[in-house]
């Protein structure tokens, strides 16, 4: 997956940057502080006895913070995979000056060293990878199993730890809006690349998108089988099964006749991505409402339907056809139900009123239904106008108080990586193109 079709994924991540501006990444702020350099002092250490996890830091404050963070990672692994054995291998995590130099890495795979400036994505991914590895490692074993699937599973859990937005009572409320935006346009990741070509956590922006899709894949697996499916995948991984083969084995009873892993994923991911938080931006909601509440028409003497649509309630015969087709009416109401959940709060009630009018087609006279639909459409238009004013005000506040390099950091980084990837195909050619004309 490192060679993603960047032009399509950049669009999806640009959508993610909208969420970031509205507070999607606020949960990262406290964790990012943990990676800031601090003055070197005597190392402090503390052991989480039950988890057999030892944290070594430079100050008591950092030690306490990293201890809480590591305990959260342990809990996430146990929730997804189950508790380890009675005596799992001990794990030591050292930060800052207490860590070894990168030039002399620890020989023990259960000793992790992180520099003070290590990105939080790298720390989380490596810590979760070690926790997953020791789940299937015999304490007496000379070396742990290789675990080729650890990359995507660790990325999935990283997304839950950093971006899962655990709410009251500990429930995770994921936000798959970037994935839904791509799915609505027919862009799906290749499942084999998700499983076998993990994105390194050092590549912060692509890794975040990769981790989101891995989390979505893990949820699809559990939704199609049971909550122990990830534990079985990890066990198969430890026994030497390739990730794709292991997944096919676990899903053997869930695939339809003739269905491939890719087609199963595309079918499952579209449904599972509707879970959790459902924020969509104003213009996407407006476009989806227009697609649902209008029909394509063609002018007399013309044959091109593209770009010409009329409101459903204004096209002769459309309400009659919809009233006579219960299945079509049910599909329309289902789509409106999904749209209402995605829409900003100001738009939800007007959209629901339009859906209610459509639902009345089966029991009321068309004249009263048409009147109700026109009234509801006017309400939707008024709500869209108010929502756009609110969006404009938020954008203005953002321009006033947030520097441009921060506002556009995510999309610009994606563009920079796309340009660099293009240059890497043929560096000599691009050096020649960079030369001024003679």
Short description:
This protein has 438 residues and is mainly α. The chain is 58% helix and 6% strand.
Q: How would you describe the overall organization of this protein?
A:
The protein is mainly α. The chain has 19 helices and six strands. The strands form two sheets. The chain has a four-stranded mixed sheet, with helices on one face. A two-stranded antiparallel ribbon has the order 5-6. The longest helix has 36 residues, at 366-401. The chain is globular and about 80 Å long. The two termini are 40 Å apart.
Structure summary, number of beta strands:
6
Number of helices: 19
Q: What separation lies between the terminal Cα atoms?
A: 40 Å
Roughly what is the average pLDDT, rounded to an integer?
79
Describe the sheet with the most strands.
4 strands, mixed
Helix content: 55-70%
Oligomer description: single chain
Strand order of the largest sheet: 1-2-3-4
Order of helices and strands: HHEEHEEHHHHHHHHHEEHHHHHHH
Radius of gyration (Å): 26 Å
Portion in beta strands: 5-15%
Instruction: Tell the overall outline.
Output: globular
Counting helices, strands and paired strands, the structural category is: mainly alpha
